[in-house]
Design a protein that fits this description.
Blueprint: E1 2-7, H1 10-17, H2 20-26, E2 28-33, H3 40-49, E3 57-58, H4 66-77, E4 86-90, H5 94-105, E5 110-115, H6 125-136, E6 139-142, H7 145-154, E7 159-162, H8 166-174, H9 181-186, E8 194-197, H10 201-204, H11 207-218, E9 224-227, H12 230-239, E10 248-251, H13 256-265, E11 268-271, H14 274-283, E12 287-289, H15 297-301, E13 305-307, H16 312-320, H17 336-348
Parallel strand pairs: 1-2, 1-4, 2-3, 4-5, 5-6, 6-7, 8-9, 8-11, 9-10, 11-12, 12-13
Length: 349
């Protein structure tokens, strides 16, 4: 079994870490890093911390519009498909769509990890990516029964299989190794700060919404730690708003172990990231989502995640809510990576 795996950003490195070593134990994996996340030094940190194999192919295809980026990725991936039994993609990025589309057009089976997630907000490029990838896939590997039900309702052609969430595997393995010295370096104490992340184009590319984001972060009753995504820093600087983040503790982009320590120690998380919503849930930390929709709807239904968009009053209200009494295991038992590989073996047999 020869599998081409396509990754391109940090959340995909985390997901691949649950699968790659198991996959290489039973077959051959060719790992392709598209370079969609273009901080090469930080990419190396993630590969080292997660013990991911070095990619056999590493491109630098970030930048430009979504269309331009996806087109470059298609051209780079297509020549790598000879002799491949399956292409494995994760999540909902341009790298995901490019891997799936290149494979489907070449008649190579596609396996999609994290299939069936829906925010039903087509303004988000990620929603279009995940819908198109699912309908191009031969094997749809779901984090939850709810995602599987969504796919069946959409009458996808591929096989739907609930395997659990691979991020649970990685979190359970690496959370005990979280770098708690990160809190000391940033001058914060466990339970006495909020952790924020923001990078979605819908929040940072529009000047009015970027101003509203700054108002949310500076209007919270606890110190806010903000690891600054390169895109967000550039937009804040261009708008003259970086200095307006009064009282916000700014940090550079962080490795997995540093970031996980901050999640575990936070009173709550404010984010527009899908993956961080899920990481907060796994850590038992309430999440305040800076969007009006989410693909991780189970976390909202369970009471651990509140959608506030960029409404500062709503964010403060969400922070004041009591914690739910229960936190059910929505995304499996930490053995999703094992099940992904078993499903790939069955598909390619």
């Amino acid at each position: 079994m020869r599998v081409l795996t396509v990754v391109g950003n940090r959340p995909q490195f985390v997901k691949a870490a649950a699968v790659s070593s198991r996959l290489r134990a039973v077959g051959e994996e060719v790992l392709v890093h598209t370079g969609q996340h273009y901080d090469d030094a930080l990419s190396r940190v993630f590969f080292d911390e997660l013990e991911l194999p070095r990619p056999e192919h590493h491109f630098e295809l970030g930048g430009g519009t979504n269309t331009e980026q996806t087109a470059r990725m298609l051209s780079a991936i297509a020549p790598l498909l000879d002799g491949v039994d399956a292409v494995l993609v994760y999540g909902d990025t341009n790298s995901t769509l490019a891997g799936a589309l290149a494979a489907a057009q070449a008649g190579v089976p596609v396996a999609h990890v994290e299939a069936g997630m829906r925010s039903y907000d087509r303004r988000m490029p990620e929603e279009l990516n995940r819908v198109l990838t699912d309908h191009a896939s031969t094997l749809l590997l779901c984090s939850s029964e709810a995602a599987a039900a969504t796919l069946r309702a959409e009458q996808v052609v591929g096989t739907v299989d609930v395997v659990g969430d691979v991020m649970v595997d990685v979190f359970e393995l690496l959370a005990p190794r979280a770098d708690t010295a990160t809190l000391d370096r940033l001058g914060v104490r466990s339970g006495e700060y909020l952790l924020a992340t923001a990078h979605r184009a819908g929040n940072v590319d529009d000047p009015a919404r970027l101003r509203a984001l700054v108002d949310v972060l500076t209007g919270m009753p606890l110190p806010v730690v903000l690891p600054l995504h390169p895109r967000t820093r550039a937009r804040l600087e261009a708008a003259g708003l970086l200095d307006a983040l009064d009282g916000v503790v700014l940090a550079p982009p962080l490795g997995y172990l540093e970031f996980t320590a901050l999640v575990l120690g936070a009173r709550a998380v404010l984010t527009d990231s899908g993956g961080v919503q899920k990481e907060a849930y796994l850590a038992g930390v309430p999440c305040i989502t800076l969007r009006s929709t989410t693909e991780w709807r189970e976390t909202v239904d369970a009471g651990w995640n509140v959608l506030v968009d960029l409404d500062a009053d709503a964010a403060r209200g969400a922070l004041a809510r009591p914690l739910p009494a229960e936190r059910p295991p929505l995304y499996g038992d930490g053995r999703a990576g094992e099940r992904v590989v078993e499903a790939l073996v069955r598909m390619t047999a």
